[in-house]
Automatic annotation (TrEMBL):
Cofactor annotation: FAD; FMN
Organism: Rhopalosiphum padi
Cofactor note: Binds 1 FAD per monomer.
Annotated EC: 1.6.2.4
Protein name in UniProt: NADPH--cytochrome P450 reductase
Length: 681
């Protein structure tokens, strides 16, 4: 058939189709079936998950468990404990002291628990009064410019901002500080006073430990008097029983698969193979060493300029920040321990906390080999503390060795004298002790439990991210010295760094774990603000970054203020580091003045402090008349103190002030961040 336009139309028979076809029915059945299985499968999984305990991964906790674990009060009540010892620690010492106090509590029928305030709901302190004869002890370190440690920051802010009623809370505080720093034990003192203000009862006066002197002696002396006060306050007596119960038990892990064994990672298993941003203290970045060159021109000392490659890491730093470097112990010392104890260093083991309620299951990443623990996790080069002497006594088979250890572990004047001379003055580490007391053969797993954690080392960054966004520079002196026993002690980090020399061929470049620690040591916000920088030796490091940043601004056409640098070293032709760079900055106008002091290039020693005294007019012109900033970097024990005294004297004389007025003026400069120090002891 064709239509009127001549187009052929095929004739078809049209039949009426049903409303629902067979295909529709089939699709409907499939949908219903899928929905049915999805619904009941989900319900089954939900039901089973309610019956199955949560699996906790090493790297994270569920929010439900974090809430549960944060209640230290519940843990105290459920386990019949009355003593909790909190620690605010940056290097591990405060945590170690806390553990020793908690352990000794058993001698006074006070079952103790160590707690990290960062992992606790500190508002629960108000409930301590519900536990009979309860006591909270705080071992708190002051860090940086009078700051709380990272793990105590939240607790510190809670005390500052809150007004909890702590009546019924019994407490004592021991502070860890260093007298060479201005803010000596500031955080511990504040916590001690603030707890009392909130109604708590001080059971024993605050103890102030000085790490510049003998913090171990300070702690032991305070701890003895603490227990006397505790006995008096609660009407209890010492049982006389020595508590030698171990905190961790040994677990044989010889059957553990190799991929589940830690090999030096700080927290997360295989974290160096599978790097994840962000990088921090528990998750460092494995950086390649891009440059490692000698800065000293001659002499028997060494100073290294090292550049860490951070390209692709997403890490960012600011001028004046610090970089943390994770070292490892020398294989020579590690092997020596294995030899002295006749131990298999490649055996795989784990140390598991005997306190099931503790949030800290292991003293370091486990399982691992003894070699890994001694290489990456444990400090085997520092002077052991007295509690280690005490624990070693039972392993001495020679009565003479036993008596020597007992004496050093005691708190008698004779014992303190022997410990000071034989351990501290002679600078013995655990390897030396095992060598010189040959009958002492501790179980290696117990020794691993006793030794403190190996800590990262911090260095002032000596570069600007404006100029070097893809690398971090440090300036480090190689540490080697001979002790009175004719042993050569070597700095753990610097001797490792000295071996990490990059190659020019296709071989893999040396690497080391690092992370960036923020600092308050900052250039003024305005580039035109004049500054004075005082940095002898490696104290020059952050100022190299400051100068680079100002030079960058100058090249961009921005106005920059005066930059005056005071630098000193022993000899111009020996250890004048970065000489060519500094002279170039003087020549192009970035560095206004460069004052140099070479202490041994003339009969009478000459230091930067002498130059400061000679240039009083220049100092006052910048910090007084022009409201400039002053920066100090280097030795805290003598140089920084001397500089502070000189500045006060200059302000007093040139500003025509009394001594009291001058001190207040300098104090105000510090509060305004116009007087900043980045110092170490």
């Amino acid at each position: 058939m064709e239509n009127s336009k001549g187009v052929k139309i095929e004739s078809t028979v049209v039949t009426e189709e049903p409303l629902i076809s067979a295909l529709d029915i089939a699709l409907f059945v499939v949908i219903i079936t899928v929905a049915y299985f999805w619904y009941f499968k989900r319900d089954k999984q939900s039901s089973s998950s309610e019956k199955k305990p949560y699996t906790i991964q090493p790297s994270s906790l569920s929010s439900i468990e974090q809430t549960s674990n944060s209640s230290f009060i519940k843990k105290l009540k459920s386990t019949g404990r009355s003593l909790v010892v909190f620690y605010g620690s940056q290097t591990g010492t405060a945590e170690e002291f806390a553990g020793r106090i908690a352990k000794e509590g058993a001698r006074y029928k006070m079952k103790g628990m160590v707690a990290d305030p960062e992992e606790c709901d500190m508002a629960d302190l108000v409930e301590m009064k519900e536990i009979q004869k309860s006591l909270a002890i705080f071992c708190i370190a002051t860090y940086g410019e009078g700051d709380p440690t990272d793990n105590a920051m939240d607790f510190y802010e809670w005390l500052q901002n809150g007004d909890a009623d702590l009546e019924g809370l019994n407490y004592a505080v021991f502070g860890l500080g260093n007298k060479t720093y201005e803010h000596y034990n500031e955080i511990a003192i504040y916590i001690d006073q603030r707890l009392e203000e909130l109604g708590a009862t001080r059971v024993h006066e605050i103890g102030l430990g000085d790490d510049d002197a003998n913090i171990e002696d300070d702690f032991v002396s305070w701890k003895e008097k603490l227990w006397e006060s505790v006995c008096s306050h609660y009407g209890i007596e010492e049982t006389g029983e020595e508590s030698n119960i171990r905190q961790y038990k040994l677990v044989d892990c010889s059957e553990v698969l190799p991929e589940r064994i830690f090999s030096g990672e700080i927290s997360r298993l295989k974290s160096y193979e599978n790097q994840r941003f962000p990088f921090d203290v528990k998750n460092p970045y494995l950086s390649k060493i891009a440059v490692n060159r000698e800065l000293h021109k001659s002499g028997d000392r060494s100073c290294m300029h090292i550049e860490f490659d951070i390209d692709g890491s997403k890490m960012r730093y600011d001028t004046g920040d610090h970089v943390a470097v994770y070292p490892k112990n020398s294989s020579e010392l590690v092997d020596k321990i294995g030899e002295l104890l006749n131990a298999d260093l490649d055996a795989v083991f784990s140390l598991l906390n005997t306190d099931e309620e503790s949030s800290k299951k292991h003293p370091f990443p486990c399982p691992c080999t003894y070699r890994t623990a001694l290489t990456y996790y444990l400090d085997i080069t520092s002077n052991p503390r007295t509690h280690i002497m005490k624990e070693l006594i039972e392993y001495a088979s020679d009565p003479k060795d036993q008596e020597k250890l007992k004496l050093m572990a005691s708190s008698t004047p004779e014992g303190k004298k022997e410990f000071h001379e034989w351990i501290l003055r002679d600078n013995r580490n655990i390897v030396h002790i095992l060598e010189d007391l040959p009958s002492v053969k501790p179980d290696l797993d117990h020794l691993c439990e006793l030794l403190p954690r190996l800590q990262c080392r911090y260095y002032s960054i000596s570069s600007s991210p404006k100029v070097y966004p893809k690398s971090i520079h440090i300036t480090a002196v190689l540490v080697n010295y001979t002790t009175s026993t004719n042993r050569v002690n070597k700095g753990v980090a610097t001797n490792l760094l000295a071996q990490l020399i990059p190659t020019n061929d296709e071989l893999p470049q040396p690497t080391i774990p690092i992370y960036i620690r923020r600092s308050q040591f900052r250039l003024p916000p305005k580039s035109q603000t004049p500054i004075i920088m005082i940095g002898p030796g490696t104290g020059l490091a952050p100022f190299r970054g400051f100068i680079q940043e100002r030079d960058y601004a100058r090249k961009e056409g921005r106005e920059i203020g005066e930059m005056v640098l005071y630098f000193g070293c022993r000899k111009k032709d020996e250890d004048f580091i970065y000489e060519n760079e500094l002279q170039e900055y003087v020549a192009n106008g970035t560095l206004t003045k460069l004052h140099l002091a070479f202490s041994r290039d003339q009969p009478e020693k000459k230091y930067v402090t002498h130059l400061l005294e000679q240039n009083a007019d220049e100092l006052w012109n910048i910090i007084g008349e022009k409201s400039g900033h002053l920066y100090v970097c280097g030795d805290a024990r003598s140089m920084a103190k001397d500089v502070h005294s000189i500045i006060v004297k200059v302000v007093m004389e040139k500003g025509q002030m009394t001594n009291s007025q001058a001190l207040n003026y300098v104090k105000k400069m510090e509060q305004q961040k116009r007087y900043s120090a980045d110092v170490w002891s």
